[in-house]
Design a protein that fits this description.
Its EC number is 3.1.3.12. By secondary structure, the protein is an alpha/beta fold. It contains eleven helices and twelve strands. Strands 5-4-3-2-1-10-11-12 form an eight-stranded mixed β-sheet, with helices on both faces. It has a four-stranded antiparallel β-sheet with strand order 6-7-9-8, with helices on one face. Helix 4 packs parallel to helix 11 and helix 9 crosses helix 10. It is globular, with a radius of gyration of 20 Å. It starts with a helix and ends in a 6-residue tail after the last helix.
Length: 341
């Protein structure tokens, strides 16, 4: 698997842009919703969750059932197997906020992630820079992949196999792009200077242009300015997320590749008893959902309070439900025979 990753990395240095045309893979099973097992409306004691009041959400849940209500079925499949947990940050562990610099996770969420990481290998794969998401999360027992997986800090025990130069497991497939990324960042600042509310975030291997605070009348103006900067640079591409534009290197590498790479470095790439669990809320998380679907083992879970097209099999409504799920996951592990050492 590592050889395939390295071969893929060499291939991507040709500035090739991938466009996946894979069809959505259906899950190997669709459990019906379980009894709540002591929960009320999918919540746990002490955590108040929002009611599903968006039009069409209930019918969408038929295809993407609540991971909380289906928890017992999910854990039945996980019993006796090695669960590996992957988490997005913004919109998953923290709420979406107007100012991206204030997307803080709660103390309760931090404690829940810390507890889960005690029992399962846990990685956070974010579009943020690795340093920024680590600053937000403030945990030393999780593994970090920043810039949509283009800046990975692998588990310490995998250093000798994945980074023979001794860089503490750091894997950066877009490292050669850094000078050009910094150049684009400087130009972008000048280009959007006159647009009220526009914010640029340097995520090291990608540049995020946030427009949540930009007046709607200026949205298209901003998009055109950013597009004009990238359109004559084939080594870069423009992607969109929730009220954010991102300038990224045109390499064939995404959150799904980061998930595979981390499984590799953990020694789980060829294991038959491994179930990756990925929770995320944005378009970039779909790449990880597809990887799990292709494996036909694991659980892709989308965080969304509105119906949307997704490759995920299960859903959680919002970060409070993510918190409830993580708490139940840790509680379940405590009650089980220690399969995971």
């Amino acid at each position: 698997m590592i050889k395939r990753n390295l071969a893929k990395f060499n291939e991507t240095m040709g500035f090739q842009i991938s466009h996946s045309n894979k069809q959505k893979v259906k899950p190997f099973f669709r459990p019906k919703n379980d009894d709540n097992d002591g929960t009320i409306n999918g919540s746990v004691k002490g955590i108040e969750l929002s009611p599903p009041d968006v039009a069409g959400y209930d019918s969408w849940l038929v295809k993407h059932p609540s991971a909380l209500n289906s928890f017992d079925s999910i854990m039945k499949e996980a019993k006796g197997k090695k669960v590996v947990v992957f988490l997005d940050y913004d919109g998953t562990l923290s709420p979406i906020v107007e100012d991206p610099n204030k997307a803080f996770m709660s103390a309760e969420m931090r404690a829940a992630v810390r507890e889960v990481a005690k029992y399962f290998p846990t990685s956070i794969i974010s579009g943020r820079s690795r340093d920024k998401v680590k600053q937000f999360v403030q945990l030393s027992n999780v593994y970090y992949a920043g810039s949509h997986g283009m800046d990975i800090m692998a588990p310490p025990r995998a250093v000798t196999s994945c980074d023979k130069k001794g860089n503490e497991g750091a894997f950066q497939p877009a490292k050669l792009f850094l000078p050009a990324i910094q150049e684009i960042s400087v130009v972008l600042v000048d280009k959007i200077r006159g647009i009220q509310g526009a914010r640029i975030e340097d995520n090291r291997f990608c540049i995020s242009v946030h427009y949540r605070q930009v007046p709607p009348v200026d949205h298209e103006i901003l998009k055109e300015k950013v597009k004009s900067l990238v359109e004559n640079r084939p080594e870069f591409r423009l992607t969109e997320g929730k009220m954010v534009l991102e300038v990224r290197p045109s390499i064939d590498w995404n959150k799904g590749d980061a998930l595979n790479y981390l499984l590799d470095t953990l020694g789980f790439s060829n294991a038959k008893d491994v179930l990756p669990l990925y929770i995320g809320d944005d378009r970039t998380d779909e790449d990880a959902f597809k990887v799990i679907a292709a494996r036909r083992e694991g659980f892709p879970i989308i965080v969304s309070s509105t119906p949307k097209d997704t490759n995920a099999w299960y859903s959680l409504r919002d970060p409070p439900e993510v918190l409830a799920f993580l708490l139940r996951l840790a509680k379940w592990r405590k009650s089980e025979i220690p399969f995971f050492k």
